Amino acid sequence: MRAWVLSLLMGLVWLTGQAWAGDISPVIPKAQGACVDEPQAMRRHHFDFLKHQRDDTLRSGIRGAKYSLKECVSCHALRGHDGKAVPVNAEGQFCQSCHSYAAVSIDCFTCHATVPDKAPKTAGVTQ
């Protein structure tokens, strides 16, 4: 009899723990476009994709590729009530919500824009 009660209590504790774990997940704002890859792949490997793209851009001058940070920002920077883009690293926004949950700092935006450009910029290089 005691083993049955103990099993029941352990099952209830496990189920309660599962419910609590679901409640603390980050709230991720929905993107405004179609992602460049499957959500599971992006969740797991986005940092690798961005690092490889960074290396391609810095070493080979390849810009505007599939995994560019600019593409991420263009879909994931939401518009506020005033119509202006809300930075992706602002409180409760796309990048910040997951990085805060995972206790990972976002250093991309110390140099890169957190909102999409209104018009494409050129490097000013003439040929």
Q: What would you say this structure looks like, in words?
A:
The protein is mostly helical and 127 residues long. Helices cover 47% and strands 0% of the residues. The longest helix has 22 residues, at 2-23. The radius of gyration is 21 Å and the shape is elongated. The model is unreliable at 119-127 (pLDDT under 50).
Question: Main attributes?
Answer:
mainly alpha, 4 helices, elongated, disordered C terminus
Write a concise synopsis of the structure shown.
Helix content is 47%, strand content 0%. It starts with a helix and ends in a 26-residue tail after the last helix. It is mainly α.
Question: Mind sketching the topology for me?
Answer:
Elements: H1 2-23, H2 39-60, H3 69-76, H4 94-101
Radius of gyration: 21 Å
Main β sheet profile:
none
| Low-confidence spans | 119-127
Report the structural category. mainly alpha
Order of helices and strands: HHHH
Number of helices: 4
Shape: elongated
State the helical fraction.
40-55%
Measured distance between first and last alpha carbons:
86 Å
Calculate the mean pLDDT score and round it: 80
